Amino acid sequence: MEFITQQAVPLCLCGEISFRYPPELPTAYGLSTAPNNVGPCAGANIRASLFKNCSAPADALQQLAEGLISTSGSKPMNSSAVRQEEVGNLLLASLPPDEFRQLAPQLARVGLEAGARLYEPEEVVPFIHFAEGGLLSLLSTLEDGVSVEVGALGREGLGGLLVLLGSDVAAHTAAVRVGATALRIRTTQARECFERLPGFRARVLRYSRLLMSQVSQATLCNTTHTVEQRLARWLMLARLRLGGETIPVTHESLSHMLGVRRSGVTVTVGTLGQAGLVSHGRGFVRVEDAAGLANASCVCYRPLAEEYDNFSNSLSTL
Ligand SMILES: [Zn+2]
Predict the structure, then answer these.
(1) Which of 108, 122, 145, 290 has the fewest Cβ atoms nearer than 10 Å?
(2) CATH classification of 226-298, choosing from 1.10.287.130, 1.10.10.10, 1.10.287.70, 3.20.20.70?
(3) In which band, very low, low, confident or very high, does the pLDDT at 311 lie, cut at 50, 70 and 90?
């Protein structure tokens, strides 16, 4: 069922926030309409963040979010069936074929544009995204507004892990750094598949171990190692995920990931460039000497790269 918000009427579930949805929607989901609060309308582009302070039941909000979201950082590309041999995401590509056949009708290929945000902290997450390439950053934002990357993912991972595992809302910002396609599935459907399909469940749990390693290492790294070491480590891991030497990333987005000023990034990229480890231009950094850049990285790089390789190799044996 698709819900169009343009012609919808303003209603509120909890009396605190207002948004629009078609009058038949609450009935369709068995909800009380509570049409007693008509407030400022959020307009056609309703985002899940509107629900974050709502006191209505979490599962009802999840379903509402899935029905209402018209912009969520990703855009559907076409509705043709997804074939497993064409899937770029490592988790889905390695699924037992009979499980993939059960998932496929619920998957839609979408484009993730650099700069888009899939979700913010405390937001209801309507879709789980399985990246087929590119690079997504998971960011924590400090009280002073400075953001820092606590995890990253490419074609090995999925956006929305905590929510898939049962959390009501997201814990981090998920920002697209390098654009790509992803296969997305409604969160409620992904949860149902997690319960029902053992191969899917095993891969998601294996991925959660990889992400937890990253997050705990990032906490240590961000407080202990120098900007130059961290930048070198980040570039090396991005190279691993993208499978190429050129990383299409701006100094601005590097500054958000590293939690430092843009001018600091420019100086640090320049230092690595003078050492012959990278070259750079408008909107990209290119790894010129991978062995040298690995040596310039902090001690976090090698265990993270090893964990990534182990994860990729283990998928076919689950
Ligand atoms: Zn480090």
Answers:
(1) 145
(2) 1.10.10.10
(3) very high
Distance separating alpha carbons of residues 77 and 283, to the nearest angstrom: 25
Domain boundaries, given as residue ranges, for the chain:
9-68, 74-220, 226-298
User: Could you tell me which of 234, 293, 295, 294 has the C-alpha nearest to residue 265?
Assistant: 234
* Ligand 1 centroid distance, CA of 255 (Å): 16
Distance 231 CA to ligand 1 centre (A): 9
Q: Residue 224 Cα, ligand 1 centroid: separation in angstroms?
A: 7
Q: According to CATH, what is the number of the domain 74-220?
A: 2.60.120.10
What spacing in Å lies between the alpha carbon of 229 and ligand 1's midpoint?
7
Ligand 1 centroid to 258 CA: how many Å? 11
CA distance 207 to 12: 37
Task: For residue 135, report the distance from its CA to the centre of ligand 1, in Å.
Answer: 19
The band of 66, judged by pLDDT with boundaries at 50, 70 and 90, is low
- 68 pLDDT higher than 90: no
* 84-102: burial string, b at 16+ Cβ within 10 Å, e else: beebbbbbbbbbeeebbee
pLDDT at 37 over 50: no
Going from the Cα of 160 to the center of ligand 1, the distance in angstroms, rounded, reads 25
pLDDT greater than 90 at residue 25: no
Distance (Å) from CA 252 to ligand 1 centroid: 20
